[in-house]
Amino acid sequence: MSIKNKLTDLLGNRVSDAPAALDAYRTDYSLASPGTPLCVAYPNDSKEIMAIVALANETNTPVVPVSSRVHFTGAAIPKQGGVIVDMKNMNKIWNLDERNRKITVEPGVTWNQLYPVLAEKNLMVCPPMLPHGEQSVITTFLERSPLVIPLYEYAEPLLSMEVVWPNGTLFRTGSASAPTFPNSFAEGVNPEGPGTMDFYRLLQGAQGTMGIVTWAIIKTEYLSPMNKFFFFSFNNIEDAIKPTYSFLRRKIGYDCFIMNRLDLALICAEEYPNEFDVMMKKLPEWMIVLALRASRRRPEEKIQYETNAINDICRKFNGMQYLNSLPGSGHAAIRLTEILRQPWTDKGPYWKHRLTGNCQDLMFITKMSMVPEFVSMMTKAAVAESFPVANIGTYIQPIEGGRACHVEFNMYYDPKCDNDKAKVLRLHDRAAKAMLPHGAQFTRPYGSLSDMVYERAASYTATLKRVKKIFDENNIMNPGNLCF
Amino acid sequence: MGIPQEAYKAMEDIVGSQYITDDQVIAQAYVGRLGHGKDTGIDLEMNVPPAVIVLPRTTKEVQGILKIAHRYKINYVPASSFWISHCAPKRPNSIVLDLKRMNDLEIDEENMCAICGPGVIFSQLQEEAIKRGMYTTTPGGGSQVSVVANHINWGLSPLNYRNGVPGRRVLGGEWVLPDGELLRIGSMSTSDDPFWGEGPGPDLRGLLRGWIGWFGAMGVVTKLAVKLLPFHDEGLKPVGISPHTTLQFPEKKRIRWYNFVMPTRESLVECMYDIGKAEIAAALTKVPQQWRYIAKAGCREDFWEGWNTNEARKSINNIHICRVMLVGYASEEQLEYEERVLMDIMDSYGAKLGRTRQSDNSWIKNADSATMWMMTGAYTSVQVTVDTVDCGVKGGEGLAREKPAFTPPLMDDYGEPGWFQVSEIGHMGYIEFLQYWDPNPNQENLYKKDEWNYIKVPTLDAEWGMFNAFNMYASPMNLTGKAYGPECRKWFEKVKAEFDPDKISNDPIPWDVDEYVDKVDWVNKEDYINRDWSKG
Amino acid sequence: MKDNYDINNYTYDMDRCIGCKGCVWVDHVYMPGVRYGVKCPSNAYKLFDGYAPMGREKIGKALLEGRIDYTPEYLDVMYMCQLCGACDAGCKRNLDLEPLSVLESLRVKAVKDGKGPMPAHKKVAQNIAEKGNRYGAAEKRSGWITKDTKISDKADMVYFPGCSASYVEKGIAQATGKILNKAGINFMTLGDKDTCCGHPVATSGMLDEAKAIARKNIDILKATGATTLVTSCAECYNTWKVIYPKMLSKNFADMGYQVIHLVEVVSKLVNEGKFTFSKPMNIRAAYHDPCRMARQGEPWVEWEGTRGQWGILTPKKEYRRGTFGVYQQPRDILNKIQGLDLVEMPRMKENAFCCGAGGGVMDAYPDFAMWAATERLTEVQSVAAEAVISACPYCKKVFNEASKANNMNIKAYDITEIILACM
């Protein structure tokens, strides 16, 4: 009896091996090689997932969990065939708890779906930079997308989760592990444990290799009643670093990031390409974007003391100037106020696909002080590969008060041009190889990065494999990714 | 008996003869009976002197020692400050790794992290941090505990209010696995800089600690970067002569304590929620009544004169103190703004602002954990749950109702429903439930303090659905390890079997309570082993 | 009558130690960082916890309970300690246990059991018994007295110079005499009855011999009719003010005499404007608090009673926590001297790191004493001071020896010499 038939016994018509259905999972927006699944299953709940995983173990069949409706990294492309477990039916949202500022979502819940539910109550989930509306909220956080608000020390919004381990058992992490949950005093807001292990950390960055999360409790924050944007212009990235450290050390502002002209124009231009073109002419090379956002009490006063603190810092930087609107776009501040709290909602392509149709990201964690060095390395690599430097966007997202930052180079290319694709792939690998020994932390090693990174991380890799073996004896969970 | 001579010689060659001893006089200094867990059943019954004490200096030396222990199958116990009875040898012929020489401390001021050896204690780190306009959160465990050990085990403090629990503040580092192999975690997995905690792919910090750590049952962390947090830059001045030493707050309005008397316990809880939602403050905690009496007392006898009164008894239900710290991270103006918001909130509850000293001697740099033993000579916390504030309040009130059945031998605290505070700007609350007893062995039913600690509270936790970090160490794994997750114990067993199959890294932790209750006659194990915990 | 040196009176204190290491660490409020974070010299020198007060208490308890016996290592553990009392002030920061009394009493027990003291201590005791001074010197004790020192035949104040200032650091005794003269204070000495205070005998645990010396000295003082004894030595100061009444189970207040250190005399006059300095001294110097005058400088308060449930004492005990030691007086004096740039070391006042010489360590473990002194001098260097000033001749001597041995170029002075030079 084929695995498809066995799955059909479990799920009825929520299984398919129709070529058209499978084709959707063969490729994504990344440069990863295609991979074809045996079939796709659409479970409705964790019990069905447990049954699928048990069956996969019996038959030594790979299981590839899929939550988002759009993919950018290649992680959900089946590398060794197997069953796609597509959780699009598991898209329930419940327990919006205003008192304790949390919400529970299933993996199929997308940003498009979650945003209005929260906004209605003046709430939000601390957002990453303009996620695609069809991305799964849970996957976004499991895959460590950095948040645009570096104010909070406890950056991770994921709290307790339910997971089906690769051996098919069901488990709750964090305080939801209490035996009677949810009929318990504990409400699942503590992500740690239970006991001596932080199970949630083993699921983070795992690209679906360590288990299938079936719901997660996510921390919510308040939308601000009042906002004020500050834009600081720089011709050199070096000059932008110290002021950013200063703002964040004094806990000023909520959203704070640095972008180069290209990325900023791409996200701020409401009308593409006309407004984009104007902005490309008028924007400086680099810009710090800092958003003051008032709390619910005495909002004006909060904005005022933070404005005064910014002025104080500007004085210390020899009268550093700022603008409250962007050159080339009088309404950019208003637009940013809105869009930084939402998924990408503009008509037309996703912001990363606006320029040339596709984008390959190279992203890593580093210290802000090291950013100029990496920018310079990226430029040199682009020149060496004859890739137009003008087509590289740069987004620097400070994390946790500037303790570290996420650096993202967006290499825009034409997906229809094979030459472009080959070039961008070479550039991606050349730049990564150059940056890795200089301390770039590729915590999300997708595609070709994984071999590069794991070869260097000898003890980590060896231990990861031992841990993986404990949880996934048969290596059925999304094999072929990371070092597994 | 001791350990094989050749093993001793090999370790001596690694560290040098002055840093190793098998002298049984010196060994007596390492027999349990210290810190949290002192005078509980396990401390009294299971702790034994070590065969050898060794003081390594470097990661390489620790690796060498662990490899020798692994080769000769010798149990070892790593310990930094010996402030917890879990890190005292419970097997004969053990090696103690006293890590105090590993006290390297490096501060990355720009990127707000401290790279610590396990011998560095909190007050040392705090001094260096405050000098640079930053701080760490000195935990309830005290200023004298190891920064590394505390971060990988526990680390709660009212100063976590803005900063989250310390498990989230562990960054990169070096971890010697039980067999002596070196694992570099976080950014140290691919570089020599430990500034970041996540490694490539799944985060192996998840193996290092959970809601609590392994207490040395999974090898030795020899270097760890931990987060430092932004503070004000006016410094804090130490003043006074012992025992009246304190850190004086600067005249500039950059840091202030406020003590409010709330009209009811309900209003105390509600104002905590409101303060969190207003996103102000740097610390937010309830003050338990017995602490007020300790603070007022010049000595133990003074405390009891105050506590043995009707006024004290009534105070549990009549006096509700909310203690708030504001910090002007950005400026004095920030503090002034937050003060106005705070007063708005407190006025709405009819709170009264009490006289408050503008200094600190119990949280920022000095944490008086030892004072917990002042009242009776013995103390433990039996409940340390972080979940919502509501969860903490319900759990504390529940335990207060159950405690009289165990009082005496526990000290009568008049129904005090525990110490609760707020974490992560109101997203979380923390309840700590404390008990005190007289450890004098010539008392009737003294075993009941262990029954309360090891069996009753964990049972109530599981029934009510509390999330007690101490569960895995202060209860049988056959109870809480079975109930939570569920069956989280099976993962711990598998991990231990994979990384320490011979159980030489601080055996029998974390299964010590199971072993202990096997030997006593006051536990009916069937009650919890056969129970279906999913039904409460 | 209660025996304050009977270890059985301190089993509660040993058992209730919780290992917070308040006995080892500098008060956390004053914690200067990793370097200079430890105030216990023996645990800084010998890193095993057996050499920390909390470890010694556990070891002592093991001995009392028969789990271990006397061994050479046991004696090292008990005697490789200056009895500097840093542990005592630290413990009483939180718990009011009595680690110093425990350590002293364990030495007394070792002597009673025929195992202590160390051979070097026996030699010192023999010197005192035979020659009246710790060095065994045959010379007259009054050799320090110069012609221009005015010593009265009869006065209310007796200057008690002690062995060191009488034989080795004579300049301190001479300076003291001249300062008192300048202040117009009449004083006398004990003349040919002047002898050792017995401090080395007491600290080595030879209780019976120490008591005999105490009784004899008290009788000699009484016979003079004087009511105040002034010292220039912190050890002598402590012996008369603390050890004598403690050995004799009396309150110091009932001893019938007052004890003051010269700095207390001078600082009072300085603060009243009655003593001024006319000469500058251009040095940057750190003041070293001598243990026995600073954190151990509070007078002995006798307590006898019972311990009940919860460990409650009846009657209440008045604790000596080191709060009211002689800390500020020397600083007041030094701050009045023009050109003298007084700086504080990281470990100061009740947290000061002992010079290393006390508690019989200089006699039995001279290497350890020198190590401790050197360690302290690095602290002097850390605050960029060129000199260290103390108020005890033993501190001055060991500091100068350590400075010379290590080419540290730090000069150690006694405060009396500084006062004299600037008068």
Automatic annotation (TrEMBL), chain A:
One of its GO terms (biological process) is lactate catabolic process. It comes from the Bacteria. Signal peptide: none annotated. Pfam families: FAD_binding_4. Gene3D superfamilies: 3.30.465.10, Uridine Diphospho-n-acetylenolpyruvylglucosamine Reductase, domain 2. Keywords: FAD, Flavoprotein. GO terms for molecular function: D-lactate dehydrogenase (cytochrome) activity; D-lactate dehydrogenase (NAD+) activity; FAD binding. The keyword Flavoprotein applies. InterPro entries: FAD-bd_PCMH, FAD-bd_PCMH-like_sf, FAD-bd_PCMH_sub1, FAD-bd_PCMH_sub2, FAD-linked_Oxase-like_C, Oxid_FAD_bind_N. Residues 33-223 form the FAD-binding PCMH-type domain. PANTHER family: ALKYLDIHYDROXYACETONEPHOSPHATE SYNTHASE (PRECURSOR), D-LACTATE DEHYDROGENASE. This is FAD binding domain protein.
TrEMBL record, chain B:
One of its GO terms (molecular function) is FAD binding. The keyword Flavoprotein applies. Residues 46-231 form the FAD-binding PCMH-type domain. It comes from the Bacteria. Keywords: FAD, Flavoprotein. This is FAD binding domain protein. InterPro entries: FAD-bd_PCMH (IPR016166), FAD-bd_PCMH-like_sf (IPR036318), FAD-bd_PCMH_sub1 (IPR016167), FAD-bd_PCMH_sub2 (IPR016169), FAD-linked_OxidoTrans_Type4 (IPR051914), Oxid_FAD_bind_N (IPR006094).
TrEMBL record, chain C:
Residues 14-94 form the 4Fe-4S ferredoxin-type domain. One of its GO terms (cellular component) is plasma membrane. GO terms for molecular function: 4 iron, 4 sulfur cluster binding; metal ion binding; oxidoreductase activity. Residues 158-239, 327-397 form the Cysteine-rich domain. Signal peptide: none annotated. Keywords: 4Fe-4S, Iron, Iron-sulfur, Metal-binding, Oxidoreductase. This is CoB--CoM heterodisulfide reductase iron-sulfur subunit D family protein. It comes from uncultured Desulfobacterium sp.
